[in-house]
From TrEMBL:
Domain of life: Eukaryota
Transmembrane segments: 6-24, 44-72
Record-level GO cellular component terms: Golgi membrane
Membrane association type: Single-pass type I membrane protein
Pfam family, any one: DUF1242
Function: Involved in the early part of the secretory pathway.
Keywords: Golgi apparatus, Membrane, Signal, Transmembrane, Transmembrane helix
Protein name as annotated: Protein kish
Length: 74
């Protein structure tokens, strides 16, 4: 189980957050509701979705690497 208070747990949480926001950007109703704000607290979701869509190859490779680490090395 990943612990959020450790460094690798924080990385797993960040990667899952970015991947989830990038996926939700493709859903029309959620895009208008959750990702409409670009500033403030709700802007974090928008910024994570932009990171996930622009750096999709890097995020995907990071997710595969982190999955290998969590499953086999940890």
């Amino acid at each position: 189980m990943a612990n959020v208070y450790s460094f690798d747990g924080l990385l797993v949480f960040g990667l899952l957050f970015i991947c989830t926001c990038a996926y939700l950007k493709k859903v029309p109703r959620v895009k208008g509701w959750l990702l409409a704000e670009k500033r403030g607290v709700w802007g974090v979701f928008y910024k994570a979705s932009v990171i996930g869509t622009r750096l999709h190859l890097t995020v995907a490779l990071s997710c595969v690497t982190m999955a290998f680490y969590v499953l086999f090395l940890k």
